[in-house]
Amino acid sequence: THKEPGAGVGGLDTTPPPAAPFNHRIVSAKPNQIRNFYTINWQEVLGGGRFGQVHKCVENSSGLTLAAKVIKARSQKEKEVVKNEIQVMNNLDHANLIQLYAAYESRNDIILVLEYVGGGELFDRIIDENYTLMELDAVVFIRQICDGLQHMHKMSVLHLDLKPENILCVSRVTNKIKIIDFGLARIYKPREKLRVNFGTPEFLAPEVINYDFVSFNTDMWSLGVITYMLLSGLCPFLGDDDNQTLNNILACQWNFEEQEFVDTSEEAKDFIRRLLIVNKSWRMGASESLRHPWLSDSALHHRLYTKKTMCRSRRSSCVPTTES
Ligand SMILES: *[C@@H]1O[C@H](CO)[C@@H](O)[C@H](O)[C@H]1NC(C)=O
Ligand SMILES: *[C@@H]1O[C@H](CO)[C@@H](O)[C@H](O)[C@H]1NC(C)=O
Ligand SMILES: *[C@@H]1O[C@H](CO)[C@@H](O)[C@H](O)[C@H]1NC(C)=O
Ligand SMILES: *[C@@H]1O[C@H](CO)[C@@H](O)[C@H](O)[C@H]1NC(C)=O
What we know:
Layout: E1 7-8, E2 11-12, E3 29-30, E4 38-48, E5 52-59, E6 65-72, H1 76-90, E7 100-105, E8 109-115, H2 122-127, H3 135-154, E9 157-158, E10 167-169, E11 177-179, E12 186-187, H4 206-209, H5 216-232, H6 242-250, H7 266-273, H8 286-291, H9 293-296, H10 298-307
Parallel strand pairs: 3-7
Antiparallel strand pairs: 1-2, 4-5, 5-6, 6-8, 7-8, 9-12, 10-11
Helix pairs in contact: 3-5, 5-7
The structure holds 2-acetamido-2-deoxy-beta-D-glucopyranose (NAG) (4 copies).
Domain Protein kinase: 40-295
Pfam families: Pkinase
Binding site for ATP: 69
């Protein structure tokens, strides 16, 4: 089916996605009943994960359509984790980062009321056989992820759970995206180590697997994996089992040998090579990535546009488990 290409004749579409339909707010969890203010559609599940489920909802007073993320949290400790997520989101005002509208705390859960984003997961675009993904589309997607990361990193926030399921398309017909799920995100503290209970290991950086110090460039590794996936539909480190995948990551064992990469530009490959590096201090940061020719060279973009360089994403070998 036809869709808008990543660029017009004049060049790359670099306009940001529409902002949330409300101004940035500083939110704290209120002890009120959410049902007194919102109508939640419990039948319509927009997404889910280890935390619980996300439902479409409408604020009665304003008529705004929003998304209610219901996070199970009984103990004080579980509630603190969700309050950290709220705290992190209070720092992030950017069109490529999903915005927080309100939060409600009850005995068994905390519900985050979020900006509604209706275009589905970026991952579904990668595996959709009816959607022709061009390399220039990948440029447009990755640029926006970098823009979001640049803002997060400027605000000292690490996302630490960047993967295609956590990137939502704004609509089915444009290439605008927003990064979601700040459940593992945190304010950067030098020399803080991170222990994660990971479900899908394909996106983990070596320093996370090694329980070593994490940093801004931990997110940049994940960006490298996502770029590789967008361009090929393949996972760079996927092994026969999780153990093998983890070993591939630690050994930084990956390549461009698959036939999916025959049309891929050298600039795209160079971009990935500068991110999938074991030593995090050698990886490009978000600002440097935005200046990389693959994301910034308009002559290259024009060439990709006229050559209609396609991503080979028909044979997706790395369908992640839906629950992480
Ligand atoms: C909110 O709006 C819905 C739909 O109009 C209505 O059924 C519900 O009673 C309202 N709730 C409150 C608390 O006003
Ligand atoms: C692709 O299009 C066909 C025919 O319209 C449809 O049956 C199929 O479900 C579509 N596939 C996806 C992944 O949407
Ligand atoms: C995991 O991989 C390591 C190194 O290759 C190997 O020694 C170990 O036996 C493997 N463990 C399992 C459970 O497969
Ligand atoms: C990573 O690179 C930095 C800068 O070159 C160096 O100081 C550091 O020792 C390296 N770390 C590891 C684990 O090799």
